[in-house]
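Q: How would the structure tokens look for this protein?
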Amino acid sequence: MPRIAIQCGLLGLLVWSALALISCSGPEAGPSGDPIACTEIGCSSGLIVDATSVRKAHSRARWIEICVKGQCKSFSTQNSLAELRMGGLGEDQIVRVRMVVHGKGGEVLHRSSVRAKVGRTQPNGPECPPTCFQIRAEISDQTGRLVRS
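A: Here is the predicted structure in token form.
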């Protein structure tokens, strides 16, 4: 009986050792073969603008609607950031971004649009994921209009 217990114990130790080797991985290797360390900063593809910029130029503004490639989303001007996440974007692609500024009763206070370039962003470096594509547009503090950034 003790002999079986020892064999099972050794087998268990071998299984655990194999699992540990399989589950542990070192840093990724760069193009030169040297290991690289990647941070874990995330990103998303689409458009991110500062919605509070609209209120600086349009004091009665209460919400904005932003549209890109037929996809629209509404945001309160009380929010600091307005984010429209979307797929299907590629580096150097040109897209039209439209914005409509609405007042308290829903009246249209301002309309603007801009053709903006899509840029690639890799917040953890060129050899580390993720890769996202972001539209290079922003809202001007002075005019409240969409502009290229």
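Residues 1-27 have pLDDT under 50 and may be disordered.

Residues 2-23 form the longest helix (22 residues).

Upvote if useful.
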